[in-house]
# Entry
Amino acid sequence: MNDNHKLPKPEALIFDMDGTLFETDTLLIGVHERIFTTLREEGLHEGPTPPVEKLLGCLGMLLEDIWNIVMPDSSEAARKRADELMLQYELEGLVAGEGTLYPHVETTLRELKARGCKLFVASNGLEDYVKGVAEHRGIAGLFNGLYSAGEYKTATKVELVARLMKDHGIGAAWMVGDRSSDVEAGKGNGLPVIGCAYAVYGRQEELRGADVLIRDFRELLELQHSRIE
# Structure
């Protein structure tokens, strides 16, 4: 962890979901193959399944942008159907016990909440998926709010975080995430950004501009404790 002593004490921490709290590939690898098997069966996709690494590299983006990259020559009908199948298969996987949180996420969140921090999620994902991960992995009750682009129809994460802060009257907060969209969301709302360098989905340069990089989720406890007045 590269500590930055200029960070203010936070009243709230705002977390991205995929690649920050949830180790998404533990769910998405199987989902990805099922999506394209179904699309081929329904005549909406021809040829082999795109590499799953392409999909994982898009995590943090809005769905419409994801499919434009993963299957750029697809029809609008195929992309719409892929949206439906992704959510269906993700929720089925979560119910079946697939997908894991990153190490130490639950215990760290519980300790932060016990210290009086307000906890939020701000994700570019779909509402049912974001809430489904939190509920099925037993952390939903730790959050003061679970915000998603799918629910609030925001075009950027900057807008989503602004909405969250306004709704809850949040002044001092830290944005915690692994992608450039998280850095932008924090900086666009005047917040310090904690970059999650343990995540494998984003390239390291995406976290350029983050105030602190952490390589273990537990480092948040030390970082937050050092700001207690």
Summary: Residues 76-95 form the longest helix (20 residues). The chain has two domains: 12-24+101-225, 25-95. The chain has a mean pLDDT of 92. Strands lie at 12-15, 22-23, 100-101, 118-123, 145-148, 173-177, 193-196, 212-214.
